Amino acid sequence: MSTDAETPGDDRRKYEFRKVIEDLREHEGSGTQLVTIYVPPDRQISDVVSHVTQEHSEAANIKSKDTRTNVQDALSSLRSRLRYYDNPPENGMVLFSGAIDSGGGQTDMITQVLEEPPDPVQSFMYHCDSEFLTEPLEEMLADKGLFGLVVLDRREANVGWLKGKRVEPVKSASSLVPGKQRKGGQSAQRFARLRLEAIDNFYQEVAGMANDLFVPKRHEMDGVLVGGPSPTKDEFLDGDYLHHEIGDLVVDKFDVSYTDESGLHDLVDAASEALADQEVMKDKAEMDEFFGELNKGDLATYGFEATRRNLVMGAVDRLLLSEDLRGDVVVYDCPSGEEYELIDRGRAAPEHTCSSGASAEASEREDAIDHLMAIAESRGTETKFISSDFEDGERLDVAFGGIAGILRYSTGV
For residues 77 and 100, is the Cβ–Cβ distance under 8 A? Predict the structure, then answer.
């Protein structure tokens, strides 16, 4: 597994980005009037402005007056925003603008610029539809990973990378292994020996390619996938041809029919289930530790109230939040001080009975994750988002309210 830990701010940035995408996906236009523009880092801003100006001119041909007006207003807003930039940011930028349906036949014009996408924007895109185009951003948020790929049979081999969801072929080799039919004049025993030597030489050559490629990156890699027909891939792995540190990274071996560059893609498809398991292994480790501490009764906390109190005390080492947590924290002014309540997002704030028995109305409201992460950051607590795509991750969401923590010391809370 990779030894390069994520920085403490990575989860917060991912969450904030995910929240922006969720908000954008909720917006709808009454027509094809929501404009999305993806700007790669090497694109000249002047070129983008020219494109927007051209689209504004062409929008004059839209038959519907409302749609025409809304599209041109959106493009004018984007053009105004672009004038604040001399060059795109390091990873490029994504711009959204349009008249969104606010209910009751009314619309609101919104314009938003995302300056720090997680990965560089790959190509310029202009999109006008009834929804904002968010799929490329969602792909950036997909679990990242670096896996070495090897496909081989006794005729050829290819090695490469799986970077995120992108397959990159790097090296290939063809073998000199003779066919199973011997040439005339050779004894069967001699032919078999020469053939085994050729196979061994080819496996060494393939291992050499893989080692040259993978060893320098071994501390950054999440695993190695090996594919091919049986018994080739089995002979290759059982023969310990790979560098021992690379051999230790082998996730599994998979049956793959093709061993050219297309075979690398087939290998990734065949390994999809194993890759999904790899993506949640770190989450599983966190939950295993949490349940271990919970069973001992010493260093685990869960639920909003107890976890929040432990956070404020600075006792939480790691805050565990379900990726499916959606809620708001409501703050009430009570005689003894502020009191807090977690409610479902979108639900009206209920009347609150203070610990003193007095009633109080809501004085403030904040996204629950933002609220908890702000406390965590101020106390030096690391936040981990836990996927619900495995049993214990789902238990965190359903049985523990999506909020838990592993403590630095026992607090009795």
Answer: no
Q: Closest Cα to residue 16, out of 166, 137, 163, 165? A: 137
Looking at domain 146-279, its CATH superfamily turns out to be eRF1 domain 2 (3.30.420.60)
pLDDT (tens digit, 0 to 9) for every residue of the chain, 413 residues total? 333 344 445 677 778 888 889 899 989 887 789 999 999 999 999 999 999 999 999 999 999 999 999 999 999 999 999 999 999 999 999 999 999 987 777 888 999 999 888 889 999 999 999 999 999 988 887 656 889 999 999 999 999 999 876 788 999 999 877 666 555 556 778 878 888 888 999 999 999 999 999 999 999 899 999 999 988 999 999 999 999 999 999 999 999 999 999 999 999 999 988 887 776 777 888 999 999 999 987 899 999 999 999 999 999 999 999 988 999 999 999 999 999 999 998 899 999 999 999 999 999 999 999 999 999 999 999 999 998 878 899 999 999 999 999 999 999 88
Q: Could you tell me the pTM of the whole model?
A: 0.65
- The CATH superfamily label for domain 9-141 reads eRF1 domain 1 (3.30.960.10)
Q: Which residue type does 328 have?
A: D
| 130 touches 33 (CB < 8 A) | yes
Q: Name the nearest CA neighbour of 27 among 82, 70, 59, 69.
A: 70
Contact (Cβ atoms closer than 8 angstroms) between residue 350 and residue 308: no
- How far apart are alpha carbons 249 and 236 in whole angstroms? 15
What gap in Å lies between CA 78 and CA 299, rounded to an integer? Answer: 51
DSSP letter for 149, please: E
Domain residue limits, the chain? 9-141, 146-279, 281-407
**Alpha carbon distance 113, 141 (integer Å):** 17
Collapsing DSSP states into helix, strand and coil, what is residue 412? coil
Structure tokens at 270: 């065949």
List 157's β-bridge partners, or say none: 152, 173
The CATH code belonging to domain 281-407 is: 3.30.1330.30
Query: Can you say whether the dihedral through the CA atoms of 278, 279, 282, 288 is positive or negative?
Result: negative
Cα torsion through 141, 145, 146, 148, rounded to 10: -120
